[in-house]
Amino acid sequence: MDLLSLDALHTESSLAFSYTVFLKSVLRNGGKNVDPLKHPGVIASDPHRPIPVLSSPNHTNENWESPPKRTAKTKESTGFFSHLLPRPFKRALETLFSGRRKGELSGKSGEAEFFGPKGLLGEVWNEEMSSSMLGNRLKKVVQNYQAMNKYGVKVSGPGGTSNRPKLSGPELLCQLKKNVEVSTLTADLQPFSALAWATMLLPPQQLTSDLGPYKTCAVVSSAGSLRNSGLGKEIDSHDAVLRFNAAPTNGFEKDVGSKTTIRLINSQVMASDDHRFLSSSLYSSGVLVAWDPAPFSSNLSQWYNHTDYPIFSQYQRYRRLHPQQPFYILHPHVEWQLWQRIQDNMAEPIQKNPPSSGLLGTILMMSLCKVVHVYEFLPSRRKTELCHYYQHFYDAACTLGAYHPLLYEKNLVKRMNQGANRDIFVHGRVTLPGFSAMNCTTEAPREH
């Protein structure tokens, strides 16, 4: 949504860094069932200091004639010097290599538990989904990520407890409109106004000033449940279509359409050689919008010097190669303002990590469009553990979340949905109003 080496809890110690190198080697050579570039529970921050994120790379155009054979999974050793590691490191390693049980993370047994006709997800997403409903392994993954707090999140507001105020769908929508400022970087902002490259390459205006307003918009997730959906014509009928990361249309037009107005990409995709960001024609159509996680309380100067991935160097390279293509960078306050809205409206603590690209893209289009249709963010009757419609990778975490607070994001979207439950069940389609179409005459709760 989307979307990978494991160095689950990077620390500054030399021991941790040494173990990072060792763990990469284990994953590449011994952990044959856990591909560090495909596992949706972790993602590399940069070549030297990886961090965990729920996202997976977008390898495309694979042969879909027959599903891959599944091999038995065996429990791996956590290493002969794991007792020397900080406890979070050990927990993450044990979780990754522990055997997958029925109903947890991956495997056909998991489909029966979560995704089958009588699975826990039901016919339509339950807006009261909780981490307590997850299997033991995925629950442990969520708890491990919760303990990290890499971005220094400071929890405030009414959320995280069962007695928090529960807002209606319209109230939630107005709360988002009032408290999430969708904006992009411009050359007049510090520190960019003092940087020669920025004054030349960053757009002079906000994305919301340059694009829209559109009447109808489609946000197309990369979910595996889009396969065999036949939604392509419906998706292309919208005035504007947003897609994510390296999600292709070529070869999948019948299910996902061919129109691309905006492509939202995370900085990992920009930095990864596998995605060929600087050379692939996949990114050359439409408007590009990039984002990178920033520390919770940092200003732009602090973030500029400590990005998760080299977003700014890649941005400069791409802009010089494609000077005519519009390319924006999302302001990092968007992700944390949105995170606060999710936490404020949940009955339990959520992961202290940025929202998924899927929800960020949805909010982006709500700022540009009168009506937004979001496809397969809430899974339809085609729900599956297949992570992406163009991949052969299976993991329930792609639907239920691990690093990103995806489970809670879906709860929020379900409560805000203005369409019928049958639209979700049959088409995987959620209907949301754009901010410009909302009538927020009463005061929605303000940011804390």
TrEMBL record:
Catalytic activity: a beta-D-galactoside + CMP-N-acetyl-beta-neuraminate = an N-acetyl-alpha-neuraminyl-(2->6)-beta-D-galactosyl derivative + CMP + H(+)
Region (Disordered): 41-73
InterPro entries xrefs: Glyco_trans_29, GT29-like_sf
Localization per record: Golgi apparatus, Golgi stack membrane
Pfam families xrefs: Glyco_transf_29
An example Gene Ontology CC term for this record: extracellular region
Keywords from the UniProt entry: Disulfide bond, Glycoprotein, Glycosyltransferase, Golgi apparatus, Membrane, Signal-anchor, Transferase, Transmembrane, Transmembrane helix
GO MF annotation terms: beta-galactoside alpha-2,6-sialyltransferase activity
Protein's name according to its UniProt entry: beta-galactoside alpha-(2,6)-sialyltransferase
Family (UniProt): Belongs to the glycosyltransferase 29 family.
Polar residues biased stretches: 55-64
PANTHER family assigned: BETA-GALACTOSIDE ALPHA-2,6-SIALYLTRANSFERASE (PTHR46059), BETA-GALACTOSIDE ALPHA-2,6-SIALYLTRANSFERASE 1 (PTHR46059:SF2)
Enzyme class, broadest EC rank: transferase
This enzyme's EC code(s): 2.4.3.1
Protein's membrane topology: Single-pass type II membrane protein
GO process annotations (BP): protein N-linked glycosylation via asparagine; sialylation
